Amino acid sequence: MEKHRRATLCTLAACVLGIIYLFFGLFHMLIFGLIVYTGYYIGNKLDRNEPVFPAEDVWRRLMDKWRLFR
To answer: How far apart are CA 65 and CA 69, in angstroms?
Structure first.
């Protein structure tokens, strides 16, 4: 256990994920992962005092692209 601690922990984590997959299915597991990642992303942005959705940057980028067609 001391020599291969990470391999053992990763194997146990894979077994837990495999059991979750067997009980709930792949689609539900992917949705759960997406929800967890979204929570992490929003929390990380809030910790850094950054806007969650940079609306001004998106608007500026869109307006720069649309100027080419005028």
So the answer is: 8
